[in-house]
Design brief:
Distance between the termini: 20 Å
Strand content: 15-25%
Helix content: 25-40%
Shape: globular
Structural class: alpha/beta
Number of helices: 14
Order of helices and strands: HEEEHHEHEEEHEHEHEHEEHHHEEHHEEH
Oligomer: single chain
Strand order of the largest sheet: 4-12-11-10-9-5-8
């Protein structure tokens, strides 16, 4: 497989970009990433003309695949042709807001922003402003964007920033607890309950190998936050409009959070984030309330059109039936392969998400620590490259999720399963 052009492009990029990339995970591919030239349904073609079945799907936003349906493309092109942006409200952002409010149980009002990180940052600020409290409880291994309040490591007794440039004083207001550990959450509230503004969690740890919640875990979080006057925030940047369809993961788990953050699919593949929730909380955002939040590109008309057209197409064309059925087919096939060839490994995922986690005992992970203890180096340094050689593009490390799109076919699934058989 020739990769001369990708190598040359990466050499150029190293001269002008830190690490040769604009997002750190893209450099996880060794010795250098391949550069994509274009997408085609469920595939990508790189700068050297190599074609891969793409299970990364832009790390989640591309529910419909790379080739957008004509109606979706037409809606995007129309907005783009009318002008880039205006610095004033537009009708299309109201249309998308109404669609989300109509379908997501917890959302009475919504504010659009420009990234998942911006959405989670705003959610933390809003929770603190609404409650008058400082501390945020998060799950270890949960990812809530590149923001100071959640870039932490350690545990409730010894927390520290996980990135240089974040003051220790920021980390001291964050309480990390293991996912699925009710006792750790209770202990956090016993010690700091009067100063906990919110518990922020992904409904599924989707950025750490895919870890499902134990039965009743989210119900417990709902009860304990209500008991202490704290907010429950679901970070659905990844799971939103993928798990549970148009109702998102919260509808599948039957738990209604106070606030929900969105990204990825809600923008149809364009830069986006959003924050939604109970009206009385959302009204605390400026200009209605004292919690400042603003952005020049928020509610960008082209992004709003892409998001609305994507979700409307999904609602009208059985998109979720298609992607979830292929997800079931993948997980079923992978389970059979793993049972025969690598019984110590685990197949994880739900709906249109999937992953083989290189566990050491065949037990499904319960928290981020279980995933971290898996054979992450083998996954990245050996297995990923073997799959690439068979023209299958998987996420760049053991932790990132993999996604099915409307552009994928049963033939893509069968070819991918054959590649797994060979690589494992």
């Amino acid at each position: 497989m020739n990769d001369d052009n990708s190598r040359a492009l990466y050499d150029r990029a190293l001269s002008v970009m830190p690490g040769g990339v604009n997002s750190a995970v893209r450099a996880a591919i060794e010795p250098y990433p391949f550069f994509v030239q274009k997408g085609d349904r469920g595939h990508v073609i790189d700068a050297d003309g190599n074609r891969y079945i793409d299970w990364v799907m832009g790390l989640g936003p591309l529910l419909l695949g790379h080739n957008l349906p004509e109606s979706v493309q037409a809606g995007i092109q129309q907005k783009a042709s009318e002008g880039p942006m205006y610095g004033t409200p537009t009708e299309i952002e109201v249309d998308l807001a109404e669609f989300v409010v109509r379908h997501v149980p917890s959302v009475e009002k919504i504010r659009f922003v420009n990234s998942g990180t911006e959405a989670t940052t705003s959610a933390v600020r809003l929770a603190r402003g609404y409650t008058g409290r400082n501390k945020i409880v998060v799950n270890q291994g949960g990812y809530h964007g590149a923001q100071e309040s959640t870039l932490v490591e350690g545990d409730a007794e010894s927390v520290a920033p996980s990135s240089a440039g974040v003051p220790q004083s920021f980390a001291e207001h964050t309480i990390p607890v293991p996912f699925n550990d009710e006792d750790a959450v209770r202990e956090a509230f016993e010690k700091h309950g009067d100063d906990i503004a919110a518990v922020m969690t992904e409904p599924i740890l989707a950025n750490y190998g895919i870890v499902d919640p134990d039965d009743g875990y989210h119900d417990f979080l709902r009860e304990i936050t209500d008991e202490h006057g704290s907010l429950l925030i679901f970070d659905e940047v990844i799971t939103g409009f993928r798990v549970g369809g148009l109702g998102c993961a919260q509808s599948e788990f039957g738990v209604t959070p106070d606030l929900t953050t969105f990204g990825k699919i809600i923008g149809g593949g364009f830069p986006v984030g959003a924050l939604g929730g109970r009206a009385e909380i959302m009204e605390q955002l400026a200009p209605s309330g004292p919690v400042f939040q603003a952005g020049t590109f928020s509610g960008h008309p082209v992004t709003m059109a892409a998001g609305l057209e994507t979700l409307q197409f999904a609602a009208a064309n059985n998109v979720y039936d298609h992607v979830n059925a292929l997800g079931d087919q993948l997980r079923s096939g992978l389970t059979d392969i793993v049972a025969e060839q690598a019984p110590e490994y685990t197949v994880a995922g739900t709906d249109s998400m999937f992953k083989v986690i290189f566990t050491r005992d065949g037990e499904a992970p319960k928290n981020a620590g279980d995933v971290k203890n898996a054979e992450t180096d083998r996954w990245r340094r050996v297995f990923w490259g073997q799959m690439k050689e068979q023209e299958v593009f998987l996420s760049q490390n053991q932790f990132e999720c993999q996604f099915v799109s409307y552009g994928h076919t049963e033939a893509d699934v069968e070819e991918t399963l054959e590649a797994y058989k060979h690589a494992l």
